[in-house]
Structures are given as C-alpha cells and as structure tokens.
Predict the structure.
Amino acid sequence: MAVNKNTKERINKILKLLKENYADAATELRFSNPFELLIATILAAQCTDRQVNKVTPKLFSKYPGPEEMAALTPEELGEEIKSCGFYKTKSRNIINTCKILLAEYGGRVPEDMESLTKLPGVGRKTANVVLSNAFGKDAIAVDTHVFRVSNRLGLADAGNVLETEKQLMNNIPQEDWSDAHHWLIYHGRRVCHARKPDCMHCFLRELCKYYNNGQVPDNKDSRDMKGNKDTTDME
Ligand code: SF4
C-alpha cells in the first residue's frame, strides 16, 4: 500500500489498529467537573499529568470552585501548585481565569472555543481538551505527542499545530476525533517516543510514512511543536 498517500484505506487501517490497541484510552487527568478539568489542564502545561494528579485532589478540596480560587493571592495559590512548574505564571492565569468565569459566565466554564481561548492560560489545545473531555464535543487537541505521532505516521503533514489539527480533522472521521486524540497520545507515550521510537515493536510499522521512507526518527529527528528538540519521553 502506498504509504505516502493519505488514502482512506490506509487511514482507516491506522485508526482501526489504534482503536484495537488503545480501546481504553482516556485523559489521565483526574477531574469531576468542567472547572476542575480546566484548572488541571492549565496546570498540565509543561508538566506531567501524573504530577498534576498529585496536586489537584488537595487543591480542589480546599478551593472547589472559581469563587474560592479567585479569592487567593498568586502567592497563596503558588504554594499549592508549586510542584507543577511555572507556578507564578500559572497562579496568575488561574486566578484571572476564575475572576472572568465569575464576572462573565456566572461561575461556569464556557462551552465554546472562542470564549475558552480568551481565558488567561487557555490556548487552543487546552480548550479542545476541555470541549472534548468535559463537554463531550468532537475535538482534536494537538499536544506534543499528537503533533509528533500524527506527522510521523502521515496522518498529517504539517509544520505547526494549527495546520496539524486542520489536517487531522479532514483525515479522521468526526466521530473519532476525540478518541483519536487519546489514541495518538497513548501511542506517543508507549511506543512512538520522541527520541527513540520503538519502530521494531510498533503495530503501525507497515503503515507508517516515516518508517517506510527509511526515516526512522532518532535524536536529531525529534522535534516538538515549536521545532525544538522534543523531550517528552518522560510524560
Ligand atoms: S513505525 Fe516508528 S515512527 Fe512510525 S508510528 Fe511506529 S514507532 Fe512511530
């Protein structure tokens, strides 16, 4: 099968295999409502989901909603979320986001991309995570794993996140968007690592554009969404 062409047949085979292998794929962030997922996703920037999950149970039990969190100073919130990294910026963004939720949305998390991306600390990826996982909307959040794996596989052929998202939305049936986001993350974490992808044990090898072009990625080849060396293997 011509792997350089995004034939429907090739894409369907890739999606089928991903689905079979990662049937239980879901977000690893723990949350019990849209507000908690929004805050957890802001905290997850440049941090592992595992680390965020260590911080959020105590955080949400002490400050369960935007009202309680908006009342904190950046220093107070910073103490709670320090271990997630970039805590000064994250504290400011979370407090300002909570103030906007209270002032403009009655304390609720908005359910549309435009409103979400106006919140401090919320980019397109975070908004898509919230839309998909908290509100059940079809969305593909392109994080560093989705970007890397989809471009290696040839599900996309793009140099930036937005273009990758658009191409994935074109190439993947809409009903699979949200699941495909999780499948690609799982594959990136388990097999298609940033620095040393395990191509020899990859169930997608026969269908992978990179592999079949003799471009088995190595350290040099691994670039993240900003073109920097990708070091996400620990996530
Ligand atoms: S064959 Fe290698 S590069 Fe292609 S998806 Fe599998 S691990 Fe990644």
The pocket of iron/sulfur cluster is lined by residues 152-153, 191-192, 197-199, 202, 204-205, 208, 210-211, 217 (CB under 6 Å). The two ends are 33 Å apart (CA to CA). Confidence is low (pLDDT under 50) at residues 231-235.
